[in-house]
Write a structure and sequence with these properties.
The complex is a heterodimer of chains A (about 425) and B (about 90). Chain A is of the alpha+beta class and about 425 residues long. Chain A is about 15% helix and about 25% strand. In chain A, strands 2-1-3-5-4 form a 5-stranded mixed sheet, with helices on one face. In chain A, strands 12, 13, 14, 15 and 16 form a 5-stranded antiparallel sheet that branches. In chain A, a hairpin with a 4-residue loop joins strand 17 and strand 18. With about 90 residues, chain B is mainly alpha-helical. Chain B is globular. The chains are: A alpha+beta (about 425), B mainly alpha (about 90). The interface between A and B is medium-sized, with 23 and 16 residues.
């Protein structure tokens, strides 16, 4: 084991909870269950050393109660210099004991799907992480010993919460700091502690929550890379993914409340892209298009799609755009419709509203080998790669390439929208 | 060209205390030897094969969810803490 060199110079410690897991992310963790799990996590340490932990009731439910160890569920930047990073990655941290205001404070990443007592894939066992973090809050550093709850990596649920006992390494560490406990309950179930309800059933891969359903079902009307963030439009709503690929919220935003100037009742956006020459954002809906400056449509819009001068090979004016993007490889704008695409040079377009496709277009979508001919939308992303989205899958064509040896589709839901991976297909022995 | 996972791994090793963070005044660069040593310590601490290279087992461990606190609180960190206390 390893000690931080810091400890509390008292053995009666107090704790409080300042925020709880978001119900939308961790639906199986009501506040009282969290309180009980944290109580048992403290008990793991007080069973091994002469420590006592008393919970301070928060005034008016969750108001700012003090105490030595203050527990918070926070996401991303939370003003302590140790930002969280969305689901996975870092799960939690705690400050060592001391006289600083933050000493003992314990923060859990609210973007994790917290759970208890089970083995639901993709979720994190709160009890396991809480015992580890409270070890830090009491003065222990990371241990390389196996088994030890103070190993830095998440090891999965530790088992029966109510009968959990520390490993020898952890017991010796805490006893080095606070001495050996004589008498009193040594593990086992304390009759005074509240009972935990049965663990929730494993998280279903297709929950009945309609928002989950929508987000994880794919079939987006449009996808756009706008100023480094990716927007997934579907119906009257959109989801927004930041540059670090974290989701701004699991809940969708209303298009009408963010993009001001689209017609009332807009329930389907065909394609969206950001024009690089002036950073305006172009929306295509049916046979019209809008140009936005930031989040507000510019005056004079909508305009007819015929401004773009797109005609099919048969000479028919195009009345709908299915996908639009700027290919980072050459900076040109590409619009797709009906299995054909047109290329535009918008480097000097500015406010001009009439334009013509480059000569030689339209061309067949089949030139983009290995991707669906009728895609939902396309973006340039990362190192200039082209991402093609269709239903709940996406394909990546590496920078500048039209024909790549292998283009493997991946899951939009899992990779972009924080949905659980579907269970692997089980193969049944053939009789 | 340095592979993307290499710079990510160096960042990871610095964050969790295996590599001294670069000094902004001297723009200290990490040596190949120093990085290999750091990888070895990380592998030993994490209980995987000690190879000194970013093999798949090591990269997998680096991508395992974990606590934000560093594994090694070395001299650099201790010194910084002392300096802060003195100030």
């Amino acid at each position: 084991y390893a000690l931080s060199g810091l400890k509390w110079h008292k053995t009666d410690l107090t704790w409080s909870v300042h925020s709880y897991p978001s119900a939308s992310v961790s639906p199986s963790m009501p506040d009282n269950v969290v309180d009980n799990i944290l109580t048992y996590a403290f008990k793991a340490w007080s069973d091994a050393a002469p420590l006592s932990f008393r919970r301070l009731p928060g005034d008016s439910g969750r108001a700012a109660a003090g105490g030595d160890i203050r527990v918070t569920f926070a996401r991303s930047l939370h003003n302590d210099g140790y930002p969280f990073d969305g689901q996975g990655g870092t799960l939690a941290h705690a400050f060592f004991p001391g006289r600083d205001e933050v000493a003992g404070d314990t923060h859990f990443d609210d973007d994790e799907i917290w759970n208890y007592g089970g083995h639901s894939s993709g979720s994190i066992d709160l009890f396991t992480v809480a015992v580890h973090e409270f070890g830090h809050a009491l003065g222990l550093s990371h241990s390389s010993t196996d088994p030890s709850i103070m190993r830095p990596y998440y090891q999965g649920p530790v088992g029966d919460i109510q009968n959990f006992r520390l490993a020898l390494d952890d017991k010796l560490a805490i006893q080095q700091l606070y001495g050996v406990k004589d008498g009193g309950p040594q593990g086992g179930v304390d009759p005074d502690l509240p009972r935990l309800p049965s663990p929730p059933p494993p998280r279903p891969t297709q929950p009945s929550d309609p928002l989950f359903h929508e987000r994880c079902q794919g079939g987006f009307d449009a996808v756009a890379n706008i100023r480094g963030e990716v927007f997934f439009f579907k119906g009257e709503q959109f989801w927004r993914i930041k540059q670090d690929r974290s989701l701004v919220s699991l809940n969708p935003a209303q298009i009408k409340n963010f993009w001001l100037g689209l017609p009332q009742g807009t329930n389907k956006v065909d394609a969206v892209y950001e024009r690089k020459s002036d950073s305006s954002i172009i929306f295509f809906i049916g046979s019209q298009y809008w140009v936005f400056k930031d989040t507000v449509a510019m005056s004079g819009y909508p305009r007819p799609l015929s401004d773009w001068g797109m005609r099919t090979k048969n000479g028919v004016l195009v009345d709908r755009v299915e996908a639009a993007f700027i290919w980072a490889h050459n900076g040109k704008t590409y619009l797709f419709s009906g299995g054909e695409f047109w290329r535009f040079d918008e480097s000097r377009v500015g406010e001009q509203v009439t334009r013509q496709p480059e000569s030689g277009y339209p061309r067949d979508n089949s030139l983009w080998e290995g991707v669906p001919a009728h895609m939902d939308d396309i973006i340039s992303w990362g190192e200039g790669d082209a991402y093609f989205f269709k239903d709940n899958l996406y394909w990546v064509l590496q920078n500048g390439r039209l024909n790549q040896a292998v283009v493997t589709p991946k899951s939009i839901a899992v990779d972009w929208l924080r949905c659980p991976a579907p269970p692997p297909a089980t193969s049944h022995p053939q009789s | 060209a340095v592979p993307a996972h290499y710079s990510t791994a160096v960042d990871w090793l610095s964050r969790y205390g295996y590599l001294a963070p670069p000094d902004p005044r001297t723009s200290q660069l990490q040596t190949k030897d120093g990085i290999e040593k750091a990888i070895r310590v990380m592998q030993r601490f994490g209980g995987v094969h000690e190879t000194g290279v970013l093999d798949s087992e090591t990269l997998k461990l680096m991508s395992t969810p974990r606590c934000s606190l560093p594994d090694i609180v070395g001299n650099e960190n201790m010194l910084r803490r002392k300096r802060r206390r003195k100030r």
